[in-house]
Amino acid sequence: MLRAAIEDDVDTIRRLRNQQANRDVSITSHEISADEHAAWWAKASVDPHRRVLIYSRDGVPAGVVNFFDLEGSSAAWGFFLDADGLAERGETLPAWIEVMREATAYAFDELGVDLLTGEVLELNAVVRQMNRRFRFVEGTPETRYAGGREVTVIRISLRKQDRRQGK
Q1: What sign for the dihedral angle of Cα 121, 101, 82, 6?
Q2: Can you give the pTM of this predicted structure?
Q3: 10-residue mean pLDDT series, the chain (167 residues)
Q4: Half-sphere exposure of residue 106, counting CA atoms within 13 Å on the CB side?
Q5: CA 51 to CA 148: how far, in whole Å?
Q6: Helices and strands in the chain, H and E counts
Q7: Which is nearest to 9 in space by CA: 31, 48, 47, 41?
Q8: How many CB atoms lie within 10 A of CB 13?
């Protein structure tokens, strides 16, 4: 289930984003401070071109989905899960499939976009494989410098007409 994030979710969003497993596969890999996160939320929560959603599983917050750069018929997105909690419960793979299914449906059916884009680190083979399963197409790898390290980023895209349809 996806729902709009509210002020009460701010600490949960930061805690999940700062989990080591999520930082390891993010372009921005440093631990996010309370002040940095508060500044992000102050902007994100009022940005008309952004939606921050909480993904819940069995009533428990299990991830965060960000849609941003909402412009006309396109949007960019990214998400991260409660890597620690889901692994502990043995629910990582089903949650991952569910959040991708729900998030892409939200983008195309609720936001009304025709093109959904994002980025993935080249080294993140598991996410790249899942993206392909959901019919995202990869672009040309690009080298960037972030947080004192070199990362190779691959842009991904999915057109509404190319998405996998649910049951």
Answers
A1: positive
A2: 0.92
A3: 96 96 89 95 96 95 96 94 94 93 95 96 92 95 89 96 76
A4: 23
A5: 29
A6: 6, 8
A7: 41
A8: 22
